[in-house]
Amino acid sequence: MPTVPMNNLVKLTRHDDVAVITIDNPPVNALSPGVPEAVAAAMDEMNADPAVTAAVVIGAGRTFVAGADIKEFGKMTSGASPRRTLLPFLLGVEDSRKPVVMAIHGTAFGGGLELAMAGHYRVASPSAQVGQPEVRLGIIPGAGGTQRLPRLVGVPKAVEMCAQGKPISAPDARALGLIDRLIDGDLLSGAVAFAREIAGQPAPKTRERREKLGTLVENAEILAAARDSAGKKQRGMKAPLAAIDAVEAALTMPFEEGCQAEQKLFTECLFSDQSKALIHIFFGEREVAKIPDVPKETLLIPVNRVAVVGSGTMGGGIAMVFANAGIPVLLKDLDKAALDLGMEKIRKNYASSVQRGRFTQGFVDERLKLITPAFHYHAFSDVDMVVEAVFEGMALKKSVFADLDRACKPGAILASNTSTLNIDEIAGATSRPAAVIGTHFFSPANVMRLLEIVRGKESSKEVIATCMQLSKRLGKIGVLVGNCRGFVGNRMFGPYRREAQFLVEEGADVEAVDQALVEFGSAMGPLATGDLAGLDVGWRIRKEYRHLEKPGVRQPFAEDRLCELGRYGQKTLRGWYRYDENRRANLDPEVTVLVRNWSAEAEIAQRQISAEEIVERCIYALVNEGARILGEGFALRAVDIDIIYLNGYGFPAHRGGPMWHADTVGLPKVYQRICEFHHQHGELWAPAPLLQRLAESGKTFAEFDQERSAAGLLERVNSA
Ligand code: 3H9
What we know:
Layout: E1 3-5, E2 10-15, E3 18-23, H1 35-48, E4 54-59, H2 70-77, H3 87-94, E5 100-104, E6 107-109, H4 111-118, E7 121-124, E8 129-131, H5 145-153, H6 155-164, E9 168-169, H7 170-176, E10 181-182, H8 187-198, H9 216-233, H10 239-252, H11 255-270, H12 273-287, E11 306-309, H13 313-324, E12 329-332, H14 336-355, H15 361-370, E13 371-374, E14 385-388, H16 394-407, E15 413-416, H17 423-427, E16 436-441, E17 450-454, H18 461-473, E18 477-481, H19 489-505, H20 510-520, H21 526-533, H22 535-545, H23 558-564, E19 578-579, E20 585-586, H24 589-601, H25 611-632, H26 638-648, H27 658-665, H28 667-681, H29 689-696, H30 701-710
Parallel strand pairs: 3-4, 4-5, 5-7, 6-8, 7-10, 11-12, 11-14, 12-13, 14-15, 15-16, 17-18
Antiparallel strand pairs: 1-2, 2-3, 8-9, 16-17, 19-20
The protein binds (S)-3-Hydroxyhexanoyl-CoA.
């Protein structure tokens, strides 16, 4: 079996009469520069070799080709490298005189699936996945995917896959005709055997097939429904609509023209701010896992059994998160009544997941078996980790941690779900502060992807590394943050919601404030969010910390006053809005009158406020506090803040997070507006020193991250 390396990324091997072309570009065999060229050269060589009857293309390592090289896109849009098109390369593959079998394991995503579809046959391991996830990067398939996929699976499925970006399993792809055969066992031998079976037969070219396409009229309803759904579910995003337009082109144009139409749409998307933002998020989600002083090799603590203290909404949700990941969990509360209530809520939650088709009844039954109620700490002696989720109060948390210190085995991780309290003070209640860490889940814990991992002064590297790794196992995205009040997410959320209240107190309508932020792309407006979370939560915290407020500095009052009237939000069916029994929000004219009266008493001048100002006031409040947090070292990188806001606070992904958004607007402009707000509204708007420094030196937050990372200046996050 002679092997000829085409270059260091691709090799050609002969298995008797079958040529095997192996792409070896770790970690995911992306189509980086050099790969297409070498595959094309290998293809020429095997076509010229009379002893070869067919070829197999396969990926080395853990996957087939997971797509084009995403790193190249940034270089192309910044002009650092020329734009490369893969179309001619794929036409060449399809025009091979000898049949080409694509052998898929792991993932054939994006350009990977486009390559596979240019082959004449596709075989796959049953565990493989295929998809066109480009819309998640703000682009569309750009190498003929929108033209070849509908030819293989029909327009309805192609539209769904290209516009929503969700992958499908190999067995589903087999059922759709996208995969020709599933191969159990060794993929390469199965693919070579398959190649021998089809050798000598006419090789079908995907681009020449039309039998599944149908006509524009036949597909009109599907296309209209897809556009409608994209408008609602991917609100504000351009790529899904472009993907639908491109698939439509497959119906109205010959293949080559369809590809040109796709290219045009692809390029428009690639050069858009949305795509730059989403690519920033793609790399950001991987970057946050990298903690400079906690190397990859750090020993992990095995977590096979856990306990959760407190069976309220958060505790119950956290228990479900562990159970969903297959980890047995003890759920502790003070007495049977509290636990029964907690377990009942968990059952209800699961039942509604079954109803919505998210889980099967069988899955839920298994998960429920993993949750064991407990009344005493003595059941905790063999757990590897405890997450405390009791009521938010320092005295109570300290007493729980003192109990945990007595009950848990040495080496167990003691985590607190506190959202505001000082993790070092909590750790001080134990004899093992190195084992103590914050794991701040977001509500509802079983749904929200974010996990803020709060590093205490003494949290050990093993405990940090384990929690970061555990977040993945739990289906969460873990971001390490420093120990300051509110940590990163909630510390920024304070000024954001403060501004929303100020705006209403200055004359903006409640609905106008929420609507402006929804138009900006947020999942929900800030006032409606307050109603959902419960206005009383912030009210209680503000009462506790009132002594810390600086005299003479303006504070919002509207929510405190609403709470005084018993308007806590959705839970009392009254808050900023009035709610019906199905918790549907309606405007409440009473609130408008109340706020107008309170503002008159406080002598706050009323004025018309534009949607633009509403967005600037709320979003720049986030940016300014984010810059302060970054400057103080409580977040490692600006991108960490972006990832927190996207996954925990419904910030629109296509704007890349608050810090990236500020970069996109331009820091000098953001800084100037903040200075104006400072002048108009006082000290709360004092610009963060880091923001001022970057704006004045013409730098961005992204450059700040890059420069510090390159200079090895990323340090551990601070602990107050
Ligand atoms: C496209 O194909 C457009 C086409 O239409 C052609 C147009 C002309 N490029 O996620 P992981 C890196 S667009 C470069 O942790 P996992 C990643 O950054 C593309 N790098 O592993 C990470 O680096 P690091 C369409 C990539 O096992 C490392 O690989 N394709 C790429 O959890 C490991 O990644 C996609 O959108 C890439 N394409 O998941 C697929 N992919 O170690 C995107 C990954 O330095 N990729 N890296 O942090 C994925 O969804 C996942 O990476 C995958 C593996 C499921 C493949």
